[in-house]
Amino acid sequence: MKKGFRQIAAVAILSLSMVLTAVGCSSSTSSQGENGLSKELNVFNWSEYLPDRVIKGFEERYGVKVNYSTFSSNEEMLAKVSAGGGIYDLIVASDFLIQSMIKQGLIEPIDLNNIPNFKNLDPDLINKEHDPGNKYSVPYMGNTVSLGYNPDQIKTSITSFEDLWKPELKGQIVMVDDQRFILGMVLKTLGYSGNDTDPAHLEEAKQKMLKLMPNIKAFDSDSPKTLLINGEVNVAVVWGPEIALAQREKPQITTVMPKEGMMITFDNLLIPAKAKHKKTAEAFINYLLEPEVNAEIAKDFPYISPNKEARKLIDKETLANIAIYPPPEEMKRIESLADIGDAVKLYDRIWSEVKSSQ
């Protein structure tokens, strides 16, 4: 939910050492407990996306040791999953990646019979085009990339993404390190779809992005709110929940609904091909879909919950925060990230060229 995409084929050059250094993962099949679950589970998730106490709650209830490791981009996740085979039992990926991962044989079907809490999900957020019938995926959390700023420090008006190019914002912006969201944002300022694949339009977006680079102090997908809270930057184009969390420290931080419209994606729980502890992974998915558990996750990491029962337990202030849950009129203008097929190679090249200019 978080977050970029690099061509999967490129990971073939990765060395085996990358796999062996995956944090906390076991390469051997563990024995089963009395509940029929394995005694360990290897989970690979975005950073700052699941509270430790939620993991410990599963461990204590089921007697399973969760080996938990994190990544900061879809590219990193894809590289390690592609190179590592069955080293992970459960991973998280953005919705627009799922069809490609299925075609590449990177994930396997999920048995929804083992996930009775699937019924808690909002009917509008399941059975989507990227995975009809949710054969391979279960929604976890969603987000937009939102625009926020500190009006106490920024005197210029900010009402749109286009305002980010103002020269007075030099060195004042933090952005998520996500090529799809950021290049999508630039495309939208040009009047194009955030999923545009026209090479001419993407070259235009590249040139415009290069002009923005002096204003960008950092690309950060791990904890971009930190720079905003510390006052190292005063403008953020980041995951909406990061703005909401920064507002807990600095209530004056303001969320902008940019006139160009935003983009949205949902992250999903997936089981990699050759996963050694599939039934235990399904038990963990079911646990995360418990309303109380899902609401506990949203307390620390307030992304968009797809769980209609959990939303009944989430505080009203969080549900009313437009950085997390855009208002209905804004949702009508929001564009979902889509699978762009082979055009990902072009996005990847442009992103690399833009980043290398920093």
How would you characterize the overall build of this protein?
The longest helix has 14 residues, at 199-212. 34% of the residues lie in helices and 17% in strands. By secondary structure, the chain is α/β, with parallel strands linked by helices. α2 links the parallel β1 and β2 (65-71). Strands 1, 2, 3, 4, 5, 6, 7, 8, 9, 10 and 11 form an 11-stranded mixed sheet that branches. It folds into 2 domains: 8-142 and 266-327, D-Maltodextrin-Binding Protein, domain 2 (3-Layer(aba) Sandwich), CATH 3.40.190.10; 143-263 and 334-356, 3-Layer(aba) Sandwich (D-Maltodextrin-Binding Protein, domain 2). The model is unreliable at 3-30 (pLDDT under 50). It has 14 helices and 11 strands. The chain is globular. α6 (199-212) packs parallel to α14.
Feature tags:
Spermidine/putrescine ABC transporter substrate-binding protein, single chain, 358 residues, disordered N terminus, globular, D-Maltodextrin-Binding Protein, domain 2, 14 helices, periplasm, signal, alpha/beta
